Amino acid sequence: MHTPFVIAQFSPVLLFSISAVLFVVALIFVAIFAQFISLWIQCQMTGAGISFTHLLMMTIRKVNPSVIVRAKITAVQAGLTEVYPISTQDLESHYLSGGNVPNVIRALVAAHRASIDLDWQTAQAIDLAGRDILEAVRTSVYPKVINCPDPRKGQATLDAVAADGILLKASARVTVRTNLHQLIGGATEETIIARVGQGIVQAIGSTASYKMVLENPEMISQTVLNQGLEAQTAFEIVSIDIADIDVGENIGARLSADQAEADMRVAQAKAEQRRADFTAREQEMIALVQKNRAEVVLAEASVPMAIAEAFRKQTLGLMDYYELKNVQADTQMRTAIAGTGMTK
Fold first, then answer.
1. Which range has the worst mean pLDDT, 41-50, 93-102, 137-146?
2. Contacts of 117 (CB under 8 A, 6+ apart)
3. d(Cα 101, Cα 128) in Å, to the nearest integer?
4. Assigned CATH topology for domain 143-254
5. Fewest 10 Å CB contacts: which of 62, 65, 132, 216?
6. Cβ burial 26-50 (10 Å sphere, 16+ → b, else e)
């Protein structure tokens, strides 16, 4: 008996609540639909194969649907999906890994059009490694020129000395293209510049005369090119061209002059050492002569004492003494005549 009364009493409130909820749900649906309808239509018209539900799930997974849709459409329109198995999940995974999805797709398209062997796995690995995959593909298609030495480092030429001692100042231009298979882990342009510079210096140094280098600079570039300098690098050397060679000073003559001067100084030092040794030896001999003279004087001073002692012991007679004096006088006279007398 009371039920119709209750329903009649609360029906307007209930109907209003239900209408409000439905209106909010409708607004949310319209907002979501309006947000993804354009992308969904593009996917349907281009054959990208991304459903409306998948677009909604991208937003929940913090993936930008516009980036993924445009990349997938580009891959489909370029025919990449017919060659490489690139799925929407692959694009999302690369996006969530921090990769540049549009750049990778553009690089794959460029490589495909240029008939370069580059698959999706290699391209995304290169991109995640921090390399610009699109620039690498462009360099592989259109080789670029590297100056050797790098003028940005403040060095304009490579200085090398030929076997005849003449200094040559050379500069080269190295044409390289990217080696995509060695791009991951391969050495950069700086290594190429360093190796080419080392090869040029070595090639010039092994040349007998600087004139041979000036007459045939291609010989130097060919010698360097045959050394396989691109090993373990991200590039393949196409050509090495000697751009300029200038003749510097005669390093060999200067070094010879410096060596001669150094040898002269060494000889002078040795001569001075010998002179000092001889001077010291001379002083030693003078001191020895003085010592011997002193000993002679000392010995001569003991002679009168010995003579007196001989007189006392009567072992020496007076006539013997006079005869000794005569002998001494005769000896002094002979010495004086000979001009070798010693002054007392």
1. 41-50
2. 111, 180
3. 10
4. Tetrahydropterin Synthase; Chain A (3.30.479)
5. 62
6. eeeeeeeeeebeebbebbeeeebeb
